[in-house]
Amino acid sequence: MSTDTGELYQEIILDHNRSPRNWGPLADASAHVKGHNPLCGDRLELFVRFDGDRVADVSFVGEGCAISKASASMMTQAIKGKSRAEAEALFERFHALVTGTGDAESQKSLGRLQVFSGVARLPMRVKCASLAWHALHEALQESAPNPSPPTDAR
């Protein structure tokens, strides 16, 4: 990564840290998940409102480092309007990015979220970048519609 690109990425992260998007509780949330990183003290609450299968709205509150807050802010922007499956796939691709296990094509599909690619070289920061994403994953699982019970075929 060139110095110019690194500086741009750093500026994007700092901007989202200073002015997080989708900040504040969401009163009519379908799911509310709390996340905590005991290694550094980052804390986050994620609020997600579903409209059927779609993420209709999402917000967060919390305290943490610039990477943690910026990641949460950018995640909320990225998942609005997505289906549960699309949000889950985005979680998987982002997790692969920050752990260094994703391929180049998968990284490209993340768009601006690629600013977190350098986290893979900083193992102690992976949990910071992925805290909100793990909360999202939990919210998607926790609020999934219950499947219909099987019918008795006797």
Would you write up a description of this structure?
- It contains five helices and three strands.
- A hairpin with a 4-residue loop joins strand 1 (about 30-35) and strand 2 (about 40-50).
- The protein has helices at about 5-20, 65-80, 85-100, 105-110, 125-140, and strands at about 30-35, 40-50, 55-65.
- It is globular, with a radius of gyration of 16 Å.
- The chain has a single domain, classed as Alpha-Beta Complex (Sufe protein. Chain: A).
- About 30% of the residues are buried.
- The chain has a three-stranded antiparallel β-sheet with strand order 1-2-3, covered by helices on one side.
- The chain is α+β, with helices and mostly antiparallel strands and about 150 residues long.
What's this entry about, in short?
The chain is of the alpha+beta class and 154 residues long.
> What's the rounded overall pLDDT mean?
91
Range of strand content: 15-25%
The first-level CATH class is given as: Alpha Beta
Order of helices and strands: HEEEHHHH
Total number of distinct structural domains: 1
Determine the CATH topology.
Answer: Sufe protein. Chain: A
Oligomer: single chain
Query: Shape, please?
Result: globular
**Percentage of residues assigned to helices:** 40-55%
Outline the fold blueprint:
Blueprint: H1 3-18, E1 31-37, E2 42-51, E3 54-63, H2 66-79, H3 84-99, H4 104-108, H5 123-142
Main traits of this protein?
Sufe protein. Chain: A; 3 strands; 154 residues; single chain; globular; three-stranded antiparallel beta sheet; disordered C terminus; alpha+beta
